[in-house]
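User: Earlier you gave me the apo prediction for this protein. Now I'd like the version with flavin mononucleotide bound, so I can compare the two side by side. Same sequence as before, with the ligand SMILES added.
Assistant: Got it. Here's the input I'm using:
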Amino acid sequence: MEALENIKSRQSYRAFKPDPIPDEILQEVIEAAGKSPTYMSTQPWEVAVVTGQTKDQLSQKLLELAKSNAPTSPDIPAPASWPEELDKRRHEHGARRLNTLGIERGDKESREKLRLMNFEFYGAPCAVFLYMDGSLGEWSIFDMGLFTQTLLLAAHARGIGSVVQASATDYAKETKEFLNLNSDKKLLVGISMGYPDPDAIVNTYRSLKKKPGEFVTWHT
Ligand SMILES: Cc1cc2nc3c(=O)[nH]c(=O)nc-3n(C[C@H](O)[C@H](O)[C@H](O)COP(=O)(O)O)c2cc1C
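And here is the structure of the complex with flavin mononucleotide:
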């Protein structure tokens, strides 16, 4: 796929076919992500690929925690508040997603089901966790973001859909224990990956994007 077309057509998918991603394809897209630029070539990324029964066991564990509303332990806490414009966008995203699925705002049961799907990795056959040394700071998180986007685009070029999930790190402590990672590692994000389910309504959802006129100033 042509590069710009690949970038423009990427979207988050939240329903997947059960078919596993062949190991060689996963290796190829992860290797491509490793080509991302980094602050002084430090390459802070560490990656855990979780598939098969191990993924099912982790999902089970996270679901139990989430269902019982166990205390969360994210290494990057969710912001306590947002600037007004971003907060508006955030709510609009939530409302449009519910609308796509025909869920009323007041339908707490359906919304809870939707929240819990995060911990089932939306049915994806593969969950990828990105983490780094706990002593690292903002520039390394920046680098991890670049790695993430390259991974998503490389996967998309091979027909693999994905969704980045902060919520997959809500139970960072338990997830790191499960993956035998040192507790001082910083768990940044989980990414569900698989072949998109073409019949799932949720995959018809498209987020709204700002136009360049809304975020660029030209200084000539
Ligand atoms: C850092 C980050 C965290 C995210 N966390 C979640 C999440 O926990 N659950 C989820 O369903 N989507 C999550 N998303 C996906 C966003 O909702 C999605 O990228 C956004 O709505 C834009 O849509 P698009 O990816 O289709 O362009 C996350 C994305 C990013 C970059």
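For your comparison, keep in mind: DSSP finds eight helices and four strands in the chain.
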